[in-house]
Amino acid sequence: MIEPDDAVRAVEAALFAAAEPLSVGDLGEHVGLGVDVAAALATLQADYAGRGVNLVERGGRWHFQTAPDMAHILRREREEPRRLSRAAVETLAIIAYHEPVSRAEIEAIRGVQISRGTLDVLMEAGWVRPAGRREVPGRPLTYATTTAFLAHFGLESRRDLPGIDDLRAAGLLDPIEAAMAGMGQLELESDEEDA
């Protein structure tokens, strides 16, 4: 049987050595039976609070990440990622809020045809994954967000996504009446050039 201090050290070592975030079950497999993984994680989370690295849970998986107030130190050494097109951002938002969602449903919500490249970019970033097929005629493929999406945006789960009131309070949404008045007639367009 592993001693309590050794259990905490074993879980810590497994998390540091892991190539990706680990669930409690994954950690249990690494450190063996008889280890209270949840207690070890709570101890480690408390130990790392206030340090340059914090232990965090994202989507039911645990990993170490740079403390938010220390992130500026690493930004100088990091390559600037490619910006997402407007079509990709809109598609990602639709998937995050409506998952699992099919390509046809994304197009119906956006009001424009989605290019193949848009979903490819989101899947290459690791934020979107295929989520199976709907049991309807044609069996369309559906898409959902990943734990990498949650980790990148600092969310523990999809429940942490901002609601409509939060977005309106942040000034990100115009009142619907003003938006509709300025739109005039909608044109159906393709975002092939946006992808």
Comma- or semicolon-separated keywords:
disordered C terminus; two-stranded antiparallel sheet; three-stranded antiparallel sheet; alpha+beta; 13% strand; 195 residues
Helix content: 40-55%
Number of helices: 10
Query: Radius of gyration, rounded?
Result: 21 Å
Instruction: Calculate the mean pLDDT score and round it.
Output: 81
Biggest β-sheet: strands ordered side by side in the sheet: 3-5-4
Order of helices and strands: HHHEEHHEHHEEHHH
Largest sheet features: 3 strands, antiparallel
Low-confidence stretches: 184-195
> What fraction of the residues are assigned to beta strands by DSSP?
5-15%
Counting helices, strands and paired strands, the structural category is alpha+beta
CA-based shape: globular
State the end-to-end CA separation: 55 Å
**How many beta-strand runs?**
5
